[in-house]
Amino acid sequence: MMIERNRTLLERVISSARIEAEIDVMRLPDDIAVSEVIFRESQDSDVVLMGLRAVKPGDEAEYADRLDDLADGLPSVLFVRSAGPFRGRLLGEQPNGGIAQPAETAEE
């Protein structure tokens, strides 16, 4: 089941980051807005982590407004974007195991 898979992944991340946290993965009820559930479940938290998704060019302002609405009234909120295809690799590591070199900059 997807909920258990997500819970297991979050437990691994939290453990490896040495963070003390409670994990609550839930399915959104059909009759309640996601903003209501987030507020109800997270209003007494010390910090709330919310996932980010990729946004189509031109939709950034609308998406930022939506995130602002979701975070309204909550304590500290961290917006986190998944590394997607980079998951499990170090930043700068190439798929073949090599390390990416910084691009040379042109002198001004």
Layout of helices and strands, plus pairs?
Layout (H helix, E strand, L loop, with lengths): L1 H15 L17 H9 L4 E6 L7 H12 L4 E6 L27
Parallel strand pairs: 1-2
The share of residues in helices is 25-40%
Strand content: 5-15%
Q: What value does the average pLDDT take?
A: 77
Largest sheet: 2 strands, parallel
Order of helices and strands: HHEHE
Assembly form of the protein: single chain
Tally of strands: 2
Describe this structure as you would to a colleague.
This protein has three helices and two strands; from the N terminus they run H-H-E-H-E. 2% of the residues are buried. By secondary structure, the protein is of the alpha+beta class. Helix 3 links the parallel strand 1 and strand 2 (76-81).
